[in-house]
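Suppose you are handed a protein chain with no further information: no name, no annotation, nothing but its sequence. What can you learn? This example shows the usual starting point.
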Amino acid sequence: MNERAQQGAQVRREVLGDAHVDRAAAKTTEFTRPFQEYITEAVWGAIWTRPGLDRRTRSCITLAVLTALGRSEEIAMHVRAAIGNGVTAEEIAEVLLHTGAYAGVPAANAAFAIGQRVLDELDAQEG
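A reasonable first move is to predict its three-dimensional structure. Written in structure tokens, the prediction is:
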């Protein structure tokens, strides 16, 4: 594994958590291995490690883009990541509301529902 991939693996674990990364690794097949290697190196190693934006900002952008594209299967994971990166529930709501104004109310509505579900789960874990 090259240095960028090693950095990507570390950042991916820090942002998404060991449990998520371990689940993804356990499901990796010979068919999906090239894609897992690509996202670890290119997304987590080349993008998330850049100095131009902090992780809070990257999490906000990621939530906005996922919401705009309607990628609901990824939103829950990135709401958890955003909380872990120091984004508050109120800030997540503002990101989703702002995205709704530009990407459409149905996209924001779906993201709000997912965000609320994740926040409820996180509160239940703490309580």
